[in-house]
Amino acid sequence: MVNRPQVKLANRQSDWHLYARLMTYVAPYWYIFLFSILGYVVYSLGNVLLADMMQFLLDALSPSENVKPGFVARAAHAVYSPGDMGAQEYARIAVPLTAVALAFMRAMGFFVGTYFMNHIARNLVHALRCELFDKMLVAPSSYYDGHSSGVLISKITYNVEQVTGAATKALKIIVREGLTIVALLSYMIYLNWRLCLVFFVVAPLIAFVVTIVGKHFRRYSRRIQDSMGEVTQVSSESIGAYKEVRIFGGQAHQQSLFHNASVYNRSQSLKLAFAEAVSTPVIQTLLSSALAVLIYFAMAPDVMEGFSAGLLVAFLTAAAQLGKPVRQLSSIQSVLQRGLAAAEDIFAQLDYDDEDDSGTVQVDRARGEISISKLSFAYAGNTEAALKNISLTISPGQTVALVGRSGSGKSTLVNLLARFYAPSSGSISLDGIELQDYQLSNLRSQFSIVSQNVSLFHDTVLHNIAYGQMAGASEAAVRKAAESAYALEFIENLPQGFETVLGEDGAGLSGGQRQRLAIARAILKDAPVLILDEATSALDNESEYRIQQALENIMLGRTTLVIAHRLSTVEHADSIVVMDNGEIVATGSHAQLLEQGGLYSQLYHQEFTD
Ligand SMILES: Nc1ncnc2c1ncn2[C@@H]1O[C@H](COP(=O)(O)OP(=O)(O)OP(=O)(O)O)[C@@H](O)[C@H]1O
Ligand SMILES: [Mg+2]
Question: Lower CB count within 10 Å: N or C terminus of the chain?
Fold first, then answer.
């Protein structure tokens, strides 16, 4: 199934490493954790005392001289001396009262343990989810190139949810039932340690089953997780491209992709369910056999001699009570392993290097001199370089046009200017300082970019223009920017004007309208370097002409890089750079380039004969 390129997880972390790392999220809440443990200790003691109470009850019915009373009986005697009451008469009052007191004690312990453990679990999940999201905001472009968006989304939704399940459910059960087992076993050892030896025979067997099954759980969980990424990926792709799917008859293809992912998910889930359904009864059977052996030995005459009926019943009650926690622990293992597999994957994401931001130079406002020297660049995994030996200098305030065939590397150059990628060799500088020496956010604040694929947000028109660092810009400034982008008229015709909420990625607008909003956003930013990558490609000639008129003013006093296929729009640039196959093949003014008669004049004449 999953044959999409998937970024291999960096070396899988060892379990202890994983637990230790998860514990660092719990550490800040250690006092709450202790409090919760305390609650569960009280709860598990309650369970033991219930067994002990059986001795109190039965010893009252058939008193035995040579056995000393249990904890509950002694506590009751300490609280209220029986005086000359008969044992049965006393027990008749004391046992029900003790039962109520124990139930209350267990209830309180349960509440404290459960609530506070949830508190920690929820904080852990919240911290993980936010860290994962924050990571996406600083991850390098290679992170996005290497993962599909569906897979990334599924990490935030599905994987985090798996950790939630493990953290809230498994953590509680492990602590609560684990403590109960410890308490019950301690009590039984206290009553008669020799009888408990039988557990030392079965315990390793149970541990063996648990480990083997746990490994399988983890493996299936990882696969389920991957297939959930696939499911999200195919769904979001099919939703985003629903028109293409229908026009090009891709339903069957999308369907088979989805079904395959889902079938794989089902088969792995079933394997998990199988392992789960097998392991619990196996463990139960092992335990029951141990109990059977226990009863056999417990009822041996020489053992019985030291036991009263009450003590025997208390011992067996405690032994029988072991069943529930062991069953719960073994059935929670799948949830736990799913959580661990998810945590492992989340940590692998968190360990991804951030975008390099080691530069320290900060400038208020750059002059806008861009100097590129012997720059080469290849995208990761591509053998062919997208940019080859590019050298180019742009003086402050100049307008330079970048033209060339599709795929010649124009947008790649813009990506490198904004430091979305680092050069393979050569250098780029702004105002004489290498780009990587700038603090990243400071560098990016020097650029206003309208990229080739405009992205808008599910928010109002106003917030789409005054986005990010421009939030809070005055309404007048936003209007002015919209006017310069030739967008004011259509915005005012929208149902709520600037307050109209756009659909996801600007759904509800035409291609040209989207571009004009993006231009308004870039104008409002008022950065010293303006980059327009096919910014008006979706506009009609008239609108394009008008925007150009408006941009003339805006380009004054700032460095502008215009990328355009329609060459008529860049005729007036100070300099035109012609790119082909990742290289600069010619530079000059419109007239000079036409005269040279190279690629430029070829493209230009084609445009006009068309
Ligand atoms: N993220 C990426 N990963 C790998 N290769 C890429 C990536 N983006 C672009 N390329 C490749 O780099 C080359 C240059 O692409 P670029 O987008 O810079 O071209 P362009 O000149 O902007 O083309 P157009 O005029 O069609 O926008 C192309 O061969 C393209 O396939
Ligand atoms: Mg491009």
Answer: C
| Residue-wise pLDDT tens digits, 250-273 | 999 999 999 999 999 999 999 999
pLDDT confidence band for 466 (50 / 70 / 90): very high
Q: Is the CB of 351 under 6 A from ligand 1?
A: no
pLDDT at 267: 95
Helical spans, DSSP H, in 157-196: 160-165, 171-192
For residue 409, report the distance from its CA to the centre of ligand 2, in Å: 7
Tokens of 115: 């609530």
Query: CB of 447 within 8 A of CB of 366?
Result: no
Supply the pLDDT for residue 472. Answer: 87
Confidence (pLDDT) at 531: 95
Which structure tokens are listed for 576? 């035109």
586/283 Cα distance (integer angstroms): 77
Query: What residues form DSSP beta bridges with 578?
Result: 403, 586
Q: Which amino acid residue places its CA nearest to atom 8 of ligand 1?
A: 412
Q: Where in the chain is the domain with CATH 1.20.1560.10?
A: 15-350
Contact 11, 333 (CB under 8 A): no
| Helix (H), strand (E), coil (C) string for 269-333 | HHHHHHHHHHHHHHHHHHHHHHHHHHHHHHCCHHHHHHCCHHHHHHHHHHHHHCHHHHHHHHHHH
> Which phi and psi (to 5°) does residue 237 adopt?
-65, -45
**pTM, 2 dp:** 0.83
Domain 370-446+527-609, CATH among 3.40.1360.10, 3.90.1150.10, 3.40.50.2000, 3.40.50.300: 3.40.50.300
Q: What is the pLDDT of residues 49-91, one digit of tens each?
A: 998 998 888 888 887 777 788 899 899 989 888 888 888 889 8
Write down the pLDDT at residue 396: 94
185 alpha-carbon distance from chain centroid: 40
The tokens 């598990």 sit on which residue?
A: 44
Q: What is the CATH number of domain 15-350?
A: 1.20.1560.10
Q: Whole-angstrom Cα distance, residue 492 to residue 496?
A: 8
- Please tell me if the CB atom of residue 420 comes closer than 6 angstroms to any atom of ligand 1: no
Ligand 1 atom nearest the C-alpha of 379 is 4
**For a pocket test of ligand 1, which of 141, 379, 424 has the largest count of ligand atoms closer than 8 A to its C-beta?**
379
Q: Which two tokens stand for residue 577?
A: 């750079």
